[in-house]
Structure formats: structure tokens, C-alpha cells
């Protein structure tokens, strides 16, 4: 018979949820957010945009297909979105100790223990999600029996972009055209999507002055936390806008490009984290189902006159991308590279490459 340790999720408003530990046995804290996707926990856990967050999965079961092997392809991880788990912890209603998948080489619990990440199951994640939807994403902590208590931790007060960005310039792929990729917490599938299209990718740290090197296009990646913490990146994007070469941004990249243009950003009540967010391309009836992971949004009303929204969220009307009316600058708040999630909008990489 399995032995379980009691684990309690405590929200900052005093609400508690009692469950069982199935990962690394240590207390932790962070911002509690929920994701409504049915699959994709290896990709979500390694997505740098989840840095500092406790991830709640609304799909009832977790771990049923195990974890794929850690191996590289084309200089990046083949199955993961970074080189380690970024979530502070993961929360599920039920955990499957018996996994089955032809690619799996270990269980989710084994992986969590290897990377020292707590996991908790046996709680009503539907009730927890309804609470977060009503009151908004909030700070929380997981305390496991026999482990020390911890203080609440607010990741949005920290420069998470600087924390997860690469430290040195890296090179990926080959081609006649060169794309500078500003790493604000880039997912590996963005690199895959670019190199598959025959361009050389120069991956630079979030505060690296890329305007000093030759390039054909600028790509601003996704990333975690509050975009107001990345003012150095915003300043560099403004310099790039003066140069005038094509610019594309994803997620955090959308927010930083918007800030460089002069728009304002605000925090959403509970963010968009799922595989099924519907967006509409402005000026058309084209609608797409998108993968998303963000807690902040661009204020459409603050976009300057020479900019306009490119996509709009069909659930709540929030901004899902911007474009310049005359120059080759555009961005998407969602994830066209997916991983995990639908690939309906991967064509945006083609639109960017065609501008080079």
C-alpha cells in the first residue's frame, strides 16, 4: 500500500485545500494560476512563462502518459520547452501512478522529484478554479507535513524575464537570413519554428544590445511575469523600430512591443492559460483556436494612432496582438508555436519570414 504525505494548499485569502503529495517533498509558494488544457503538462511545466507560479490543472487526471525522454534535436530539447521545470508546483484533482505512452521513460512523480518540484493531488480543482475566477489569481503556498512552512511569494515583483533569459549569445540553424531572437523566456518550439523555415537564429539575452550586430528581422519571445520589469528590453525595441527592419513578438513580446510603441499594459483578473482561446483577426471573419499563457494584457485604447489591434479575444474582447499600419511590425499575444496546444496559427511564422 502506498504511503502518502498530507499536503495543504493555502491561498493568501485564507482559503485552504487539503490533498496528498506526489512530487518532491518540500513546501513552496508562488502565484496560483489555472490552466484548462486537457494535455501538455511536460510542455507547460518547462514553459519559462510559468516561472514563479503554482500551476493548477483543471483536467481531472494528471500523469497518465508519463514523461518523455530528455534529448536534444537541432540544439534544443526535442520534447520540452526549456532545460528544466519552471513552475513552483503543480496541482491536480487526481494523479495516475500507472502511466502508459510509447515515448515515456519515467513517471511524472519521478520527474518532479528529480527536479525538486512539489506536486499535490486529491483536491477539488473545480472548486479551486471557480474561486480563482471569482477572486482572481492570488498568491498561495503548499505546505507538506513534516516540512517547514514558507512565506508567500509574489513573482510579479521580481524581474522574471532577467531570471529566465539566456546569459550568452547563442546560434541556432543556418540560412541566408538572420533573425535576432530576444530571449525573454523563450520556448524551444519558437526556435524550432524559425530554424525549420531556413533562417539563422541569433538568440540574445533580454538586455543585449542587438542593434550593434547585422540582422534581417527581430523576434521578441514569450516570457514570465510583469512586462514593466523589462524596461531595458523596451528601450532596445524602440531602437530597432527606428532601424525599421521587420519585428514580430509573441506573448510577452506582444506586450513589450506595445510598450515600445507607447501603449499601456494591465493585469488580467485570472489570465488566459489554455489550449482553446478563440481569437478573431481584426477586419475579417477569420477566427482561430489558440494556445495561451499570460496574466497581463495590452490596453487597446492606449495604442498610438499609427498602430492597431491585430487580433481580439472572442471571450472577453481583450487584445491578442498588434500591428503597425505602415511598417513591418506585428505581434501576437497567443502562442502560434503551440507546444502544447493547437497549431492553427503557426502561419504567423511564415508571414514574418516573408517580410525579411
UniProtKB/TrEMBL annotation:
<dbReference type="GO" id="GO:0006526">
    <property type="term" value="P:L-arginine biosynthetic process"/>
</dbReference>
<dbReference type="InterPro" id="IPR002474">
    <property type="entry name" value="CarbamoylP_synth_ssu_N"/>
</dbReference>
<dbReference type="InterPro" id="IPR006274">
    <property type="entry name" value="CarbamoylP_synth_ssu"/>
</dbReference>
<feature type="active site" description="Nucleophile">
    <location>
        <position position="251"/>
    </location>
</feature>
<dbReference type="Pfam" id="PF00117">
    <property type="entry name" value="GATase"/>
</dbReference>
<dbReference type="GO" id="GO:0004088">
    <property type="term" value="F:carbamoyl-phosphate synthase (glutamine-hydrolyzing) activity"/>
</dbReference>
<feature type="binding site">
    <location>
        <position position="295"/>
    </location>
    <ligand>
        <name>L-glutamine</name>
    </ligand>
</feature>
<keyword id="KW-0547">Nucleotide-binding</keyword>
<comment type="subunit">
    <text>Composed of two chains; the small (or glutamine) chain promotes the hydrolysis of glutamine to ammonia, which is used by the large (or ammonia) chain to synthesize carbamoyl phosphate. Tetramer of heterodimers (alpha,beta)4.</text>
</comment>
<feature type="region of interest" description="CPSase">
    <location>
        <begin position="1"/>
        <end position="176"/>
    </location>
</feature>
<dbReference type="InterPro" id="IPR036480">
    <property type="entry name" value="CarbP_synth_ssu_N_sf"/>
</dbReference>
<keyword id="KW-0055">Arginine biosynthesis</keyword>
<feature type="active site">
    <location>
        <position position="335"/>
    </location>
</feature>
<dbReference type="GO" id="GO:0006207">
    <property type="term" value="P:'de novo' pyrimidine nucleobase biosynthetic process"/>
</dbReference>
<keyword id="KW-0067">ATP-binding</keyword>
<dbReference type="GO" id="GO:0044205">
    <property type="term" value="P:'de novo' UMP biosynthetic process"/>
</dbReference>
<comment type="similarity">
    <text>Belongs to the CarA family.</text>
</comment>
<dbReference type="Pfam" id="PF00988">
    <property type="entry name" value="CPSase_sm_chain"/>
</dbReference>
<dbReference type="InterPro" id="IPR029062">
    <property type="entry name" value="Class_I_gatase-like"/>
</dbReference>
<feature type="binding site">
    <location>
        <position position="225"/>
    </location>
    <ligand>
        <name>L-glutamine</name>
    </ligand>
</feature>
<dbReference type="InterPro" id="IPR035686">
    <property type="entry name" value="CPSase_GATase1"/>
</dbReference>
<keyword id="KW-0665">Pyrimidine biosynthesis</keyword>
<feature type="domain" description="Carbamoyl-phosphate synthase small subunit N-terminal">
    <location>
        <begin position="5"/>
        <end position="143"/>
    </location>
</feature>
<feature type="binding site">
    <location>
        <position position="252"/>
    </location>
    <ligand>
        <name>L-glutamine</name>
    </ligand>
</feature>
<feature type="binding site">
    <location>
        <position position="223"/>
    </location>
    <ligand>
        <name>L-glutamine</name>
    </ligand>
</feature>
<keyword id="KW-0315">Glutamine amidotransferase</keyword>
<dbReference type="InterPro" id="IPR017926">
    <property type="entry name" value="GATASE"/>
</dbReference>
<feature type="binding site">
    <location>
        <position position="293"/>
    </location>
    <ligand>
        <name>L-glutamine</name>
    </ligand>
</feature>
<comment type="pathway">
    <text>Pyrimidine metabolism; UMP biosynthesis via de novo pathway; (S)-dihydroorotate from bicarbonate: step 1/3.</text>
</comment>
<feature type="active site">
    <location>
        <position position="337"/>
    </location>
</feature>
<feature type="binding site">
    <location>
        <position position="49"/>
    </location>
    <ligand>
        <name>L-glutamine</name>
    </ligand>
</feature>
<protein>
    <recommendedName>
        <fullName>Carbamoyl phosphate synthase small chain</fullName>
        <ecNumber>6.3.5.5</ecNumber>
    </recommendedName>
</protein>
<keyword id="KW-0436">Ligase</keyword>
<feature type="binding site">
    <location>
        <position position="255"/>
    </location>
    <ligand>
        <name>L-glutamine</name>
    </ligand>
</feature>
<dbReference type="GO" id="GO:0004359">
    <property type="term" value="F:glutaminase activity"/>
</dbReference>
<dbReference type="GO" id="GO:0006541">
    <property type="term" value="P:glutamine metabolic process"/>
</dbReference>
<keyword id="KW-0028">Amino-acid biosynthesis</keyword>
<dbReference type="GO" id="GO:0005524">
    <property type="term" value="F:ATP binding"/>
</dbReference>
<dbReference type="InterPro" id="IPR050472">
    <property type="entry name" value="Anth_synth/Amidotransfase"/>
</dbReference>
<comment type="function">
    <text>Small subunit of the glutamine-dependent carbamoyl phosphate synthetase (CPSase). CPSase catalyzes the formation of carbamoyl phosphate from the ammonia moiety of glutamine, carbonate, and phosphate donated by ATP, constituting the first step of 2 biosynthetic pathways, one leading to arginine and/or urea and the other to pyrimidine nucleotides. The small subunit (glutamine amidotransferase) binds and cleaves glutamine to supply the large subunit with the substrate ammonia.</text>
</comment>
<feature type="binding site">
    <location>
        <position position="296"/>
    </location>
    <ligand>
        <name>L-glutamine</name>
    </ligand>
</feature>
<comment type="pathway">
    <text>Amino-acid biosynthesis; L-arginine biosynthesis; carbamoyl phosphate from bicarbonate: step 1/1.</text>
</comment>
Amino acid at each position: 500500500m502506498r504511503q502518502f504525505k498530507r499536503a495543504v494548499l493555502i491561498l493568501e485569502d485564507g482559503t485552504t485545500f487539503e490533498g496528498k503529495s506526489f512530487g518532491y517533498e518540500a513546501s513552496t509558494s508562488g502565484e496560483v494560476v489555472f490552466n484548462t488544457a486537457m494535455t501538455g503538462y511536460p510542455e507547460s511545466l518547462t514553459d519559462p512563462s510559468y516561472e514563479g507560479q503554482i500551476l493548477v490543472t483543471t483536467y481531472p487526471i494528471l500523469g497518465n502518459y508519463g514523461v518523455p525522454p530528455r534529448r536534444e534535436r537541432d540544439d534544443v530539447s526535442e520534447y520540452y520547452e526549456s532545460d528544466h521545470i519552471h513552475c513552483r508546483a503543480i496541482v491536480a484533482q487526481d494523479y495516475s501512478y500507472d502511466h502508459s505512452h510509447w515515448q515515456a521513460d519515467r513517471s511524472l512523480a519521478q520527474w518532479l522529484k528529480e527536479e525538486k518540484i512539489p506536486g499535490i493531488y486529491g483536491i477539488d480543482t473545480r472548486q479551486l478554479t471557480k474561486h480563482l475566477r471569482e477572486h482572481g489569481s492570488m498568491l498561495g503556498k503548499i505546505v507538506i507535513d513534516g516540512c517547514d512552512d514558507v512565506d508567500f511569494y509574489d513573482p510579479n515583483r521580481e524581474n522574471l524575464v532577467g531570471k529566465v533569459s539566456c546569459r550568452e549569445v547563442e546560434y541556432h540553424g543556418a540560412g541566408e537570413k538572420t533573425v535576432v531572437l530576444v530571449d525573454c523566456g523563450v520556448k524551444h518550439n519558437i526556435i524550432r519554428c524559425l530554424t525549420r523555415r531556413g533562417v539563422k537564429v541569433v538568440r540574445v539575452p533580454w538586455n543585449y544590445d542587438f542593434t550593434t550586430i547585422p540582422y534581417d528581422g527581430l523576434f521578441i519571445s514569450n516570457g514570465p511575469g510583469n512586462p514593466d520589469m523589462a524596461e531595458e528590453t523596451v528601450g532596445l525595441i524602440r531602437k530597432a523600430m527606428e532601424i525599421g527592419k521587420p519585428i514580430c513578438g509573441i506573448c510577452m513580446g506582444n506586450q513589450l512591443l506595445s510598450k515600445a510603441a507607447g501603449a499601456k499594459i494591465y493585469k488580467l483578473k485570472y489570465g488566459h492559460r489554455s489550449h482553446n482561446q478563440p481569437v478573431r483577426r481584426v477586419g475579417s471573419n477569420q477566427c482561430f483556436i489558440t494556445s495561451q499563457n499570460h496574466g497581463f494584457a495590452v490596453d487597446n485604447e492606449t495604442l498610438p494612432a499609427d498602430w492597431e489591434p491585430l487580433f481580439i479575444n472572442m471571450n472577453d474582447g481583450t487584445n491578442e496582438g498588434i500591428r503597425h499600419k505602415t511598417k513591418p511590425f506585428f505581434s501576437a499575444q497567443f502562442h502560434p508555436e503551440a507546444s502544447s496546444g493547437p497549431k492553427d496559427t503557426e502561419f504567423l511564422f511564415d508571414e514574418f519570414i516573408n517580410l525579411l
